[in-house]
Design goal:
The complex is a heterodimer of chains A (235) and B (393).
Chain A lengths: L15 H14 L3 E7 L3 E6 L3 H11 L5 E9 L15 H6 L23 E9 L4 E8 L5 E3 L8 H12 L2 E3 L25 H5 L3 H6 L5 H14 L3
Chain B lengths: L8 H15 L9 E6 L11 E7 L2 E8 L7 H4 L5 H8 L7 H16 L5 H29 L4 H21 L8 E2 L2 E2 L7 H24 L2 H7 L7 H6 L5 H4 L7 H4 L21 H24 L19 E9 L2 E9 L7 E5 L1 H7 L1 H5 L4 H11 L3 H5 L1
The chains are: A alpha/beta (235), B alpha+beta (393).
Amino acid sequence: MAETTEETEVVPLVDHVREELLGTLTSHLGDAIVASHIKPGDELWIRVTTEGWAEVADVLRNRLNFLFFDFVSAIDWLPSPYGREMDAQVDTIVAAANGEALDAKPPEEMVQGYAGGDTRFQVFGRVLNVVDMLGLIIKADVPDTLVVPSWIAHYPGANWHEREVHEMYGISFDGNADMRNLYLPGDFEGYPLRKDFPLLARRVKPWPGIVDVEGMPGDDADDEADDTDAAEGDA
Amino acid sequence: MTATTGANERDQLAYIAAKAADSRVNVELETEGMTLNIGPQHPATHGTLRIVARLDGEQVISADPVMGYMHRGYEKLTEVRTYPQVTTLINRIDWLGSFANEVPFILAAEKLMEVEAPPRAKWIRTILFEMSRIANNLLGLGDMAAQLGAVTPVFYAFRDREYVLNQVEAVTGGRFHPNFDRIGGLKDDIPAGWIASTKDSMVKMREAADELESLVFGNEIFTARTRGIGIIPAEVALEYGMSGANLRGSGVDWDLRRDAPEGMAYNEADWKVWTHPDGDSYARAWVRLQEMREGTYIVDQLLDSLPSGPVMAKVPRIIKVPEGEAFVETENPLGVMGYYIVSKGDLVPFRVKIRSASFNNIAVVPWVLKGVYVPDIISILASLYFILGDIDR
């Protein structure tokens, strides 16, 4: 774990393969790559401009042999306006319904993940080169128009993924005309995976996680017993 | 009326046939277009998948899968569950190989927490993972035979699968929903005597595989209905993101168990990745059979080399996963399954994207069913072998 003493001796790893891939991509795409993030030995994240979203698929598929299409999805970076903070004893939405005063918690800032970003919504996808066993995650900001270019010209498998993103987030894909709902009824209103879409079950019952992490009577003793078990190993 | 320029010949033919079907002019001696609704309740759908096929005579003009009958919204639900609670949900994605569903999620969470499971836990994980594959593939093959008109193999498959499920139950307490994998290791060690009884059951599984091979794969009807049917070339399989036996049945030699074995013990066993160059229904089923048999050898070898030691690393009792993003995918029974976890340092994930195998495997259906005959729909769907929970999530 993180607090080992040897940590100071660890030399920062350099991932030559992924650095090289990033260099190749930059030479092909130029300014379309806005940001990148490399976790050595693990994964490469790049963020492209919205306009470059289709171009990056073209380059990866047709020039760099990233033939395997893994997935396309989206993420809503808005901090959840509902309860579920880890210290909350009740779900704020339940408290509000009961007329209780809400804890005045300052609204959280929207923080985008690896490779940054400026917009609330981002699309991200992953493609893979099965010969070199090398994959990367591509992200792009979604502008306020909620339209990004489609990947289906380069990866036909993206069709269903884009339809799923559309029904879950309301993001449309320019070039993919088939935006029927995959899962939800055709007349469903709202976009369920957006953070401001309430989960009905949570409106009527507080978050079950609170129960799970609450201290139980005699909990400390149990805890110690567990620890010794783990230390002794198997019988 | 002309087809759009640039469309290939196949699309043009389909377009013309669709127009003919639309016009509904029932000229004598001319076939009338019709819509055939397969499912939602159909034995070939492993759950509730509906396929709307538009036919011209016996030939399919277009086929459109309709799903969502089993959508349970797991990606939303994971956002209100703590990390240990999530495994309970994701067990139910591919219900025939449920232990395997937990592993990529746990590996991704371990990656974020920088925890590594002790060797013994890795070994047992891999063993249970392969046992999920054996049970899953066996039932898939038996079911495929049933869909092609041979009723006996599916009963044999259900019977023989119990040998594996009993072993899984002996360790985890659950036949279908083990919920056994934990961040940092496993819930428990294996019970006494389990190694010997598992080896016995692996012998039985090899016998079951042999039986299935002689009963089904040597069968003339089976061969006639699968050979050369539903051919998916490797490049199409790749760009649709097909994986698992379906991809290797198209001749792509790519298996995450060999190519990305981090967190598992596959490197400790000597085994082979099976591929088949044909890409037809037979090839997919054949690869599945070989993988099932190969799985029994992996289990045997790992049981022999099982290291001693704890099955759980030191992890805090209340699991808070540090901020970050991680993606881990593994070679599940149905194909590549991955979890993209975004953590904000909370008790709950901020976002979990579930990349399930069947969703991508089934995306190719509109492509592959175009132009085939009605009986081949069943053969192709059976050979693609999907589980609805794995599509709808």
